[in-house]
Write a structure and sequence with these properties.
- It is a multi-pass membrane protein.
- It is an enzyme of class 2 (transferase).
- GO terms for molecular function: fatty acid elongase activity.
- Its EC number is 2.3.1.199.
- The protein has helices at about 5-25, 70-90, 100-120, 140-160, 160-170, 180-195, 205-225, 235-255, 270-295, 300-305; strands at about 40, 45, 315, 315-320, 330, 335.
- By secondary structure, it is mainly α.
- The protein has a domain at about 55-295.
- It has a two-stranded antiparallel sheet with strand order 1-2.
- A hairpin with a 5-residue loop joins strand 1 (about 40) and strand 2 (about 45).
- Helix 2 runs antiparallel to helix 6 and helix 3 (about 100-120) packs antiparallel against helix 4 (about 140-160).
- The longest helix is centred in the N-terminal third of the chain and has 25 residues, at about 100-120.
- The protein starts with 6 loop residues before the first helix and ends in an 18-residue tail after the last strand.
Length: about 350
């Protein structure tokens, strides 16, 4: 059942509750949890041993000392993409930023490739476990380098906010769906928390596999934006969707196994965010793949999607040349637009976009 709450209200509630809880947990005392257990710290306070102090290695890094700079960025982002931007663009022509977007896509390929290689070099080629990998908080070279790479991944999630801004500047406001904005906002908050408390260990896998998928995805974006003849001729477009489905499945499995390993010292609280989120995204992508590639009656998909069959837009540029105004079943490399999705029922005049 779909809870009929205005999208901006849900986003504001999520945003506020997250940072309010973060402040209560983080406070002004170096990051100790304020819940009481039977263990006392050096200042006499009773500490929650389930949540270690925030990692002191990251405190001096940009945006990492407190949550408030990140909260300000997300607040401005939400106000721009949901209110200020659309109002500002109302009587303006779409910005011609195709060249900028092309080099943005290329930069994303290079950055994500670097993060993937570093995850392999510093983690999984050195014996990182898929089943249980505690965080090494020591100030030695390799653990510190891993923490730094996790921080770079967080900065990439901040950079990803530009995807939505491109939609607004190109007057593709219909692509700025609740799910799209929720996904981008949530990733910044989640990865910030991960870097603040456990930059390394079990959580590395999510950034590792996601970086690989983004290399492939942004390579597609770059090729199609650099040469229009590729827009309808890249045979591997279908397999990007398969890769995304595999990604969500692997991340879900990797975190799910922690439920059955009570001796694993990696924090368990992220499970209650990551598992539902990955299951939700897995369901969306699987439904899209079925509708676009498996169902035997493509005319049904065309009829339900307003005549536009699934295609890959590049940061607001539709590969099929459409203006993005008709309801459609779409996949943009990071999410699904599907008015017919059984996983998320929406008003037929709205899209679901999780770029």
């Amino acid at each position: 059942m779909y809870l009929r709450v205005a999208p901006h209200t849900m986003l504001n509630l999520t945003f506020w509750e997250f940072f309010k809880g973060l402040y209560q947990r983080y406070g002004n005392d170096g990051g100790w949890a304020a819940e009481h257990t039977g263990h006392e710290g050096t200042d006499g306070r009773r500490l929650d041993v389930r949540c270690r102090p925030t990692d002191p290695r990251v405190n001096d890094w940009f945006l990492m000392k407190t949550p408030w700079p990140g909260a300000a960025i997300l607040g401005l982002y939400l106000m721009f993409v949901l209110k200020w931007g659309p109002k500002w663009m109302e009587h303006r022509k779409p910005f011609k930023i195709d060249t900028f977007i092309k080099y943005y896509n290329l930069a994303q390929v290079i950055i994500c490739a670097f993060l993937f290689v570093e995850g392999l070099r510093l983690g999984y080629l050195r014996g990182y476990s898929f089943l249980c990998q505690p965080v090494d908080y020591s100030p030695t070279e390799v653990p510190t380098m891993i923490a730094r790479r996790c921080y770079y991944y967080f900065l990439v999630k901040v950079l990803d906010l530009l995807d939505t801004i491109f939609f607004v500047l190109r007057k593709k406001q219909n692509q700025v769906s609740f799910l799209h904005v929720y996904h981008h906002t949530g990733m910044v908050m989640l990865i910030w928390s991960g870097v603040k408390w456990f930059p390394g260990g079990h959580g590395v896998f999510m950034g590792f596999i996601n970086s690989f998928v983004h290399v492939v995805m942004y390579a597609y974006y770059f090729l199609t934006s650099a040469n229009p003849k590729y827009k309808n001729n890249l045979w591997w477009k279908k397999y990007i969707t398969q890769l995304q489905i595999i990604q969500f499945g692997m991340i879900f499995l990797q975190w799910f196994v922690l439920l059955f390993q009570p001796s694993c010292t990696f924090p368990k609280w992220p499970l209650f965010v990551i598992l539902p989120q990955n299951l939700f995204m897995f369901c969306l992508f699987l439904d899209f793949y079925y509708q676009a590639y498996i169902k035997k009656k493509p005319t049904d998909v065309v009829r339900r999607s307003g005549g536009a069959v699934a295609d890959l837009p590049q940061n607001g540029i539709h590969a099929n040349g459409s203006n993005g105004k008709s309801p459609s079943v779409e996949y943009n490399g990071k999410g699904v637009n599907s008015d017919s999705s059984d996983c998320t029922k929406r008003n037929s005049s709205k899209e679901v976009n999780t770029s």
